[in-house]
Structures are given as structure tokens and as C-alpha cells.
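New to this. Please check this fold:
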Amino acid sequence: MDAIAKAWSRAVRTAFPGPWRRWLVVRELGFALLLGVFAAAIELIGRTGLWLLVGPGIAALFLLRRGLPGTVLVITAAACGWFGGTFPLLVCAGWSAGTRMHRLWALIGSFTGGFLLMTYAGVVKDAGAAPLKLIIGLGLGGYLVLAVLPALWGRYRAQRQALLDALRERNDQLLRERTMVAHQARLRERHRIAQDMHDSLGHQLALISVHSGALEVDRTLTDRQREAVGVLRLAAVAAMRELREVVGVLHDESTAPAPVVAAGPAASGGGRTGGVAGIERLVEFSRAAGTTVSLGRDGERRPLAAAVDNAAYRIVQEALTNAHKHAPGAPISVALRYEPDALVVEVANPCAPELVGVRAGAGAAVSGGQGLTGLRERARLVGGMVHAGPTPEAGFRLAAVLPYEGAADQAADIGGAELWELDTLPAADGEAGARRRRSPAIGCAAGGTAVVLIVLGLLVWGMVAFVRGIDGVTVQKSVFDSIQVGTDQAGVEERLPKGNRFFSKDWEGSGPTPPPGTTCRYFMSDEPSGHMGEDNVIRFCFKDGVLVEKENYPVKV
């Protein structure tokens, strides 16, 4: 029972899709009642005796057209071949099919099947009463006007609404993407600030720590001075630790890699010169802290891209900072080698000497774990690489290979740009493509034009066929007078037109009673009867292959 109930519920939802709001229920029931009464009235006028069946059936089909548009269209088209009151429903069924049927081939199949059934019913109903070509032509013209044209208009409305909905959704998506781009730009800027804080301030604090550590072991200082220097060193270490924590927070909140920015001013040892030109100043300040630092250059100097120049400076700065923290007092060698295709930056130091009291009370060196990661990311963004690791002599070596031109993605520059520039970004390709997308009006207009042309062609064909049919039943008065009773039937028919029963069937049985046993043919005279509402009819009656009577009389129409 549950399966039956579920199947019934599914069938009801399919046949009557919601939501059914109050005004929609009133509208659907009102139109169903109106169409049912109209169809029943037409059948009552035609005295077919089926008005009790046609009226409720039309109302039911109208209510089912929303959920079953293809089925209702086919049934309505077939009923139009039998009952004249169903034509208003055919317009509604065509509209619903064009609006609600989204699969093109299903739509074409439904309309084709409906036309074939409608034509078949019309041929069966009016067989012998009208020529086959006339029945097909009238059926095709009526079907195109009553079913296909509403379907094209409904399909245009549905596609236009779907296109507008898609454009609204696309616009909302673009707005969301624009917001996300602005958010990512802010994150990249935070990451860049964190990286610069790590490189610049960390380097300066490391130098302060090294200076204060050297002063702590100076024998010329008094105990009070040595205590003050120790407080200064501890404060520098605490500042470095807090800096690492802040940088770590900024890194955690920023998922995008640090952008490559143009080489610009960098705070280093009181100087404001960055790039390769500022490396010598970094070395001088390290020497001033009491560390032996050598700087060597090899090869012919080459111009560097701004991003490469800045990356080289930051790599040397971070390497010197790490050497001061992890190997205080050890000599440091800095080398810049201009290779044919890349700049090689190398910073190395041996194991730190055992200096009594240098690290007393300092604990482990402060490290945020971000330095080497940031350097590798900088090098990667300019198309280079960084290698860092211990040397066989228990020292440490950091080497970076940086191409001269760099290979940074230009889109990364947005991180250093002003965020307000995001408001002026050009429209996305998808938005431009949506604007260039072909309007649904083109296809529907083409279909509507084709229908109108076909209907006009059928009208022209009908007018030509009507004229030819009139000619086929018109006999000149002179021909009528020249034909004599007693002439053989073959000779008479040679002088008569072909005839057309569509026009002459209303004249059959009219006029004087024909002789018994005769077969009569009816025509229209080319001379008018002289009275309105009358046709001037000519009749030829044959018996045994001989003309036995000819008559010319008026018939009221």
C-alpha cells in the first residue's frame, strides 16, 4: 500500500506541479470552466450529442497542461480533428508546450505527432466532402497559427526569462568574485608586510642582540653596566620573539603566497637602500657588530629586474640574521656571482666558536620558522631557487639562484597595488560572453517568420486552388446551348470542365426532378442569376452513355 501511495503521490505531483498559490488555483479553475463551457456550447450547437463528454474533457486537459504539456498537446490536436470547440485549448496547449518543454526533440516530436493525428482525424471525418489537399492545407495552416505560433512565443518568453536569471546569477557571482579578489589582495598585502617585518626588523634586532652580547663580556664594564646591557639583550630577544609571533599570525591568516614587489626602500641598519646595492651596507653593519664578514663579487655585473634585485637583498639579509642568531661570533662569507644566465647569491659560515658567557642566560635562539620558507617563496616567484643546509665542516650554507629577468606572475603585483583599483577591474570574459550571447529572440523570430511565410504560402495556394476549383465547375452559356440532348456522354464530357465536388455537392438534388435511372453532373453557369444569394446551376443527366437531359436553373445559397 505504501508503494501505491507513493506512486500515486508522485503521479499527482507530476500532473499538477506546484506551487499552487491561491490566485493560481482561481485562475486555472476559472479558465478550465470557461473553456469547458465554450466547447460544450459548440457541440450543442452542432448537435453532436457529445457535449457532456467534450466539456469536462477540455477542462481536465487544460488543468493537466502544466504538468503534461506534450501529452495534452497531442490529445488536444487529435480532438481538434473531430470537435470544433477544442481550438481555444489548442492555443493554450501550444503555449504550455513551448514554455515548459525544454528538450528540443521532445518538443518537435510532440508537435509533429499532434499535427499527424489532427490531419488524420480531419481526413477521416471529412473524407469525400472535400479534396484531400484542401483538408491537409487547412489543417496545416490552422495548426501553425493555433499551436506553433503560441509555442514559439511561449518558448521565447521562457528562454528570455532563463537568460535573465542566468545573467542575474552571473552578476551575483562576479560581485562575489570581486569581493574575493579584494580579500585576497588584502591577504597578500598582509603577507608582504609580514615578510618585510620579518626580514628588516628581525635583522636589526639580531644585530642589537649580537652587540649587547659582545658588550656583556667586555671586561671594562662595571657590574651595573653589564647588568644594564644584559637587560637590553633580553629586551631585544623578547622583541624578536614577539615579532616572530606577530609574523606567524599574519602568515596563518594569509593563505596566498607573498607577492613579488618592486625593489624599493628597505630599512636596514639605518640605511634606506635595498637591492644588490644595499648588500654592502648590510655587511658593514654586521662588521660593526663585531662579526667578521667578507663580501666577494665574481663576474661582470648585469642589470637585474626589480623583483630579482629585491629578492637578492632579502636573501642576504635573512642569511646574515640567521648566522648572527645561530652562530654568533663565527665569520661569515657573502658571495655574489654573475653567471651567464643567473645571479648566484651564497652566504656561508662555519661552526660558532666557543665563547664563554656569550649565550649565558639567553636560552635557545628565537626562530619563527618562516625565514627560509619566505626566502624559497621569494626565489620561486622570480623563477629561481634556494638551497640551505649544513656544510661538511659543521657550518651552514645558503645559496640562491636568481634569473636576471625574473619570471614573476604579473598578477601578483596586485598585492602591492592600491585596493581601490579593484573597483576599476575590467569585466570578466564570462560577463562579456553573456553580453555577446545570442538572444533567444533570434531563434524564435526565425521560427515565427517561417510559420508566417508558410501560412501566407498556404493562403496563396488556397486562393489559387479556389480559383481553379471555380473554373472547374463553371460552364459557359454558349457551350451549354451548343450541347444537344442525345449526344453520347463521352462527347459531352470532352467539352465540360473536370468539375469539383467540393463546390457542386451543395447543388446535388436541387432543381427539377431528374429522369429516373440517370446520373447527373452539376456545374455553374458563367452568367449570373441576377438575384442576390442565388447560383445559376447547370445540370447534365446521362443514361446508358447518352445525354438525356440538360437544365439551367437558379439555386438559393
Summary: The first strand starts at residue 293 and ends at 298. The chain has three domains: 14-177, 189-407, 475-556. The longest helix spans residues 132-216. Strands lie at 293-298, 332-338, 342-349, 385-390, 396-403, 474-475, 519-525, 534-543, 546-556.
